[in-house]
Write a structure and sequence with these properties.
alpha/beta, about 15% strand, Rossmann fold, Arc Repressor Mutant, subunit A, 15 helices, two-stranded antiparallel ribbon, eight-stranded mixed beta sheet
Length: about 350
């Protein structure tokens, strides 16, 4: 039988690149995190450099540095001309710490908690249906108890939010709204963005746990928004919500399963007056759950970090419709993000 299999072997009708791509991703993409951690990008911010110049500046050997540089170049984070490496626009905009769009704090958070994305941790998350970050402890409870972890997490969330915070306020007419409640608002990036982009918005309120609000006040001061952006310390699940005519959630629904998302949706509906608007800012699955890959991968991140999952626009539309919101619309926002929005009749 074995001999028959050998003699009958035929060339498959599809090649094996997709299988290799899985392996290459495991080793290739972390090279970018290491380039960030080892200060390769900040070194190149000062000048273009050759391989040997980068090695000398960072006291590293050529073999590993060449592997990292080639990967970063292949993925579009660097360019190479006449043996000199230079930053590309995406790296200049998002990976230099002096940039207002700096994304690096989120990469730092991923590096610091890389064990949560290991095969062993993800397997444990799948088998137990429980997140594994911080040794399997509850993400938000850990932040309440350990302020330094909270600060690092908030910095990471701010770095992935501040750019998209300047986009969603511009994609539809929000001019009739005066008070925005930023529910689970973290650093307040989206409140700050709304205040910058919506001149008719009188005030944005960041509602989060007291420890988060203390951290958010630092960001408000950094952007000199103390007159228009305030904090409101509260437990969003148990406490009364302050008055607002615009309820905003960014990357909140994916932290929770549908029952808790439905609770938040219903609480928004009951607290908003007629004409009040809800905005859910999320990355969305296709309605048939065939992708896209980035959002499916984000759901795997949620396996490691929270009890939640990603949703399709259709699923979020249904949640809003079930509690009574009308005129429900979906708009593309920045990058992978979209907004799902509805109005209380």
């Amino acid at each position: 039988m074995a001999q028959e299999k050998i003699t009958n072997i035929q060339l498959p009708g599809v090649d094996d690149r997709a299988l290799w791509d899985v392996i290459f991703a495991i080793y290739g993409y972390p090279a970018l995190l290491l380039a960030h951690r080892l200060k390769i990008f900040s070194t190149l911010a000062k000048n273009t450099c050759t391989l040997s110049e980068i090695c000398n500046a960072l006291n590293l050997k050529p073999r590993p540095v060449e592997a990292i540089l080639t990967t970063a170049t292949a993925l579009g984070f660097l360019s190479l001309h006449e043996e000199r490496y230079r930053l590309t626009p995406v790296t200049e905009v998002y990976l230099l710490e002096n940039s207002p769009n700096y994304f690096g704090f989120f990469w730092d958070m991923m590096i610091d908690n890389y064990q949560a994305s290991s095969i062993a941790s993800l397997e444990e998350a799948i088998l137990t249906d429980k997140p594994q970050v911080y040794g399997g402890n509850n993400l938000f409870k850990t932040h309440e108890e350990q302020i330094e972890l909270l600060r690092r997490f908030t910095a990471g969330m701010h770095s992935i939010s501040i750019t998209s915070a300047l986009v969603w306020p511009t994609i539809m007419d929000f001019s009739r709204h005066r008070i925005m409640l930023d529910i689970g608002g973290g650093s307040g990036a989206h409140s700050i963005g709304a205040a910058i982009k919506l001149p008719n918005l009188e005030q944005a309120l960041i509602m989060d746990f007291p420890q988060v609000c203390e951290v958010a006040e630092g960001y408000i001061a950094q952007y000199k928004m103390q007159n228009r952006v305030k904090v409101h310390a509260a437990n969003i699940w148990q406490d009364h919500w302050p008055m607002a005519d615009l309820h905003f959630y960014s990357n909140m629904y994916h932290d929770w399963m549908p029952d808790k998302c439905h609770f938040l949706t219903a609480k928004s509906f009951s607290n908003l007056e007629s004409g009040g608007r809800i905005v859910i800012h999320e990355m969305l699955y296709n309605n048939d759950k065939t992708g896209p890959f980035a959002i499916a991968a984000f759901s795997m991140i949620m396996m490691g970090w929270t009890e939640g999952k990603m949703y399709s626009g259709q699923e979020l539309t249904k949640m809003l419709d079930e509690v009574g919101f009308e005129d429900i619309q979906i708009y593309k926002a920045f990058g992978y993000h979209s907004i799902v929005t509805g109005v209380k009749p």
